Amino acid sequence: MAVPSLSGSGVGFDVPGKTRQLANSEIIQGLARFARFLWGPIAVACCYYAGTQIGFALTPTHTPISTFWPPNSILLAALLLTPRRKWWMLLLAVLPVHLLAQLPLGVPIARSLGWFVGNTGEALLGASCIIALNKRETLFNTVRGVVVFLLFGVLLAPLFTSFVDAITVVATGRSGSYWLLWNTRLFSNMLSELTLARVIIIFASGGLSSIGRASWQRLVEAIFLGVGLVLVTVLTFGGEPLRNSVPDLVYAPLPLLLWATVRFGPGGLSLSLLTVSLLSIWNAMHGRGPFTTASMPANVFSLQLLLCVIGAPLMLLATVMVERKSIVNSLRHSESSLSNRLGLEQSISELSRRLANSSVEQLDSEIERGLQHTLETTGAAKICWYVNRQGSPELVRLYSVKTSEARPSPARIEVGQIPYTAKRLVRGEVVVLRSLEDIPHAEVADRDFFREISVKSLLLIPSLSSTTVKGFLGIAFSTPRDWLDDSVNQFTVLANLIATTLERQEAERAKLESEQRFQTLFQEAFIGIVMEDLDGHLLFANRTFCSLLGYSEAELRDMTCAQFSDPEDTKIDWAQFEQLRSGSIKEYQLEKRFMRKDGSKMWGHIAVSLLKNQTGTSPLVIAMVQDITHRKMVEQGLRQKEQEMQQLAGHLIMAREEERQSISRELHDDVGQRVSLVAVGLSRLKEELPAKMTKEHSQIADLLNEAEEISTEVHELSHQLHSSALQHLGLRAALQGFCRKAERQYNVAIALEADDVPDMPSDAALCLFRVAQEALHNAATHSKAPNVVIRLLKDGQVIRLEVHDQGIGFDPASSTHGIGLITMRERLRMLGGELLVKSAQGEGTEVTATLRLAA
Hints:
Blueprint: H1 15-57, H2 70-81, H3 87-102, H4 109-133, H5 143-171, H6 178-213, H7 216-237, H8 254-285, H9 296-356, H10 363-378, E1 382-389, E2 394-402, E3 412-414, H11 419-426, E4 431-433, H12 444-452, E5 457-463, E6 469-477, H13 485-524, E7 528-532, E8 538-541, H14 543-549, H15 553-557, H16 567-582, E9 587-595, E10 601-611, E11 620-627, H17 629-688, H18 694-721, H19 724-728, H20 731-746, E12 749-754, H21 762-781, E13 787-795, E14 798-805, H22 819-830, E15 834-839, E16 845-852
Parallel strand pairs: 12-13
Antiparallel strand pairs: 1-2, 1-6, 2-3, 4-5, 5-6, 7-8, 7-11, 9-10, 10-11, 13-14, 14-16, 15-16
Helix pairs in contact: 1-2, 1-3, 2-4, 2-6, 3-4, 4-5, 5-6, 5-9, 6-8, 6-9, 7-8, 8-9, 9-10, 9-13, 17-18, 17-22, 20-21, 21-22
């Protein structure tokens, strides 16, 4: 199945206008991305500034350390909610607002920078340790996550960085006890991290969405809790100090905090604890509350310590309850899922049993019955099976079941209607959609299509067992649904079961059609077909075979193959037939002669193979016979013509050599001598002329030079036509002389490596010499080779001539062979040798001629 391209839809549009729209769209998208890039750091900076102002508002007079310092917890929460690679942006954003909030209040720049190092160091240390030891997603959902948060975010990070802040205050000239400053800063930051940081993380991670999903009873309960908590805290800590104060009243908000823990979980507890902390600390700073001492710092410290001691266990309690609730829900969900899986497994098993016992005609009804039972077991809205044939642009519905309320599945689905889903199915992926929101935002067509057919959750499973027909099982629900891996695996089993059943149905139908086709092919084939047993007795013969031999089928059934085969060919045929029977070979082909009923002979090409019977009985032998009598006659005529052509080529080459030798002798003995006589005559004439006839002397000198050049060229031409060095000095000397001349003629560097080959027959030496001439000529003129290597090697009675150049080369498979290569090959063939040519584009050419000398 191929997803058609939508680029060729033919929809026209104004190109310049479209280009401007695309440009404007890219600018807008770029600005939007830039705004989203800056939104996080700007929001954190604003919250950090607001937290700093709140911290200063909660700082007692004549005290440099706040009783509740929010900026550190705000920054810690922001770091935990932000990817690590973007932390630098947050730190860079809070630096200017940190200075902006502190410098106008008269805080020295050194102290302000020291506090910035302490604030950011505390947040970085806490966030790094927490992320290293626990996942962000499970920070407040598991006891482990809460313990890690309390240990590193609430305790250790403020503990270490409080030293930096206390040293900063003392070093910048502010009087006061170092340990008192350290102690005040430690519990101020611990309380802030314990209350505010957790509130920010929980509500930024989706806690606000739970408010919108809450029932009105739950909202009323939350309002009563909030109002009661504020009233109790204000009444407890907002009154004027009494002479006989009751310190136990500080525990008055504890029952309400337990209420928030049990009923509203970590989010409700954190918000309640933050409310109590802010109201109680504010009143304690102003000298109010049920305290037994008049020292404001001591009262604030005891209050901070109390809130930390109460908050940590309550936080663990809320997390334990959340974890317990999650486990209970998971067990209930697992029980329900197990029940559904068992029901689905039983349904699939029952369907498998019925399909195995059904005939081909019953398979369709059994599949629909099984899908209906699966629909009722799983509670799906509809289940359907679509198929797509190779090359088709649509999915065709084959089976479909649905509830009475569900809309029918489309009979056909164009691939273009669901391009995203179709691409995934083509790749063999299982498409799991818990809801339509799982479809990428850009894939509008898929989302609109599924919404139109009232599908809210979908599982599509491809079956790729067939190469021509793809099957797809679809299970649709009218509400969003979580798909467990076990359920997906079970539906995959169902899809494979249906696909296998359909393949079986198709195979059995194809088997019946194949048998019918085989009968037709067997009887109507244009070649002879026979079937025989392992003893060679004929069982069946088609009409063509009967007509080839002139026998009827009844006559052939009483005969063996040897009775109508040529005796010489029968031996060869029977030897291979024995190997076929023993299993040594699976098939064999042979050309043999047959004896017709009228006594004439027929050449036939037979192909024989075993037909193994699936029932376990003895296999049969099938033989196909083609009449090749006419072809054999043509081949015999061609072989005779080829022999005649080879003889003619040999005669032509010999005649050519004789002609070359005759012309060479004529040039050397006749023309060369005459030119020499002319030169002698010109020399005498020059001597007889008076010295004063300078012009005539010059002309005669020019004629002498011309005569000498003609004599030289005639001499060289004579040697090219027939080498006297080859005749008198041997092949090695002839090649040496030829190479020297060729270097001057072709301007090519030639390296000759030649073994001495004495007593080589003249015809063999001439053959190799001509091959060397032709190969070197081709290398210089066609291959454009700057360097050529010629080797003459002797290995026993084998003489090998190699000519290798570094030219442009050629492709022997695609190039047509010129007359030069044909001549070289024919020369070697006449003497029983062979020619091998190796070449490739850009890699040069290597010509190797091999001759074996008679012993």
